[in-house]
Design goal:
The chain is an all-alpha fold and about 180 residues long. It has one domain. It is built from 6 helices and no strands. The two termini are about 20 Å apart.
């Protein structure tokens, strides 16, 4: 394993803590809004941090695990696996696509959480909840995946891209760079 700097570890820990706290707080204040099929998980706006630092990859993944642990009673342990894998792959892809810009914004990178969550969480909802493990129904998968992706897309377009722009305009992106 590559030696990680203290800055990398601190950034990953802060991102994980912010993600988990925002998700849990949202679920307490607005039950179900961050953990159902159609969700607007405000903490997903933090995914945009993967454009600025690779520390967001473990940070978002661990944050998702912690947030999903808090909702085990309603979603079950499968969400720990599928939701966390979706976060991991989305952050990895976002970091890989961070330099591709449209109108000075990482639009393609911002689509990755919608794509990954649509696939992973859409499958999870279809297989484990809608069909209760009996079978996989592609039509149900498209519906469930589409609903999840729609919520993700809304968060990233309404909150994530403006957050990215704010970070860049204020010059805060430099704060994420390791020395």
């Amino acid at each position: 394993m590559k030696n990680k700097t203290p800055l990398f570890i601190a950034q990953a820990a802060i991102i994980a803590a912010l993600y988990a706290t925002l998700t849990i707080l949202q679920n307490v204040l607005l039950p179900g809004s961050a953990s159902m099929a159609v969700q607007f998980r405000v903490s997903e706006a933090l995914c945009i941090l993967a454009v600025f630092t690779p520390a967001a990859i473990p940070g978002l993944t661990v944050g998702c695990v912690l947030a999903n642990i808090s909702s085990l009673s309603s979603l079950g342990p499968c969400d720990l696996v599928f939701g966390s894998l979706a976060s991991f792959f989305a952050a990895l892809l976002m970091y890989s696509l961070r330099k591709l810009r449209f109108f000075k914004l990482p639009v393609l990178a911002a689509l990755m959480p919608a794509l990954m969550n649509g696939i992973f969480v859409g499958f999870e909802i279809d297989f484990f909840f809608v069909n209760q493990g009996a079978a996989f129904d592609f039509r149900d998968f498209l519906i469930q995946g589409g609903l999840v992706a729609l919520g993700e897309l809304a968060v990233l377009l309404v909150l994530g891209l403006p957050l990215c722009r704010l970070i860049e305009v204020r010059g805060l992106g430099k704060q994420f760079k390791s020395k």
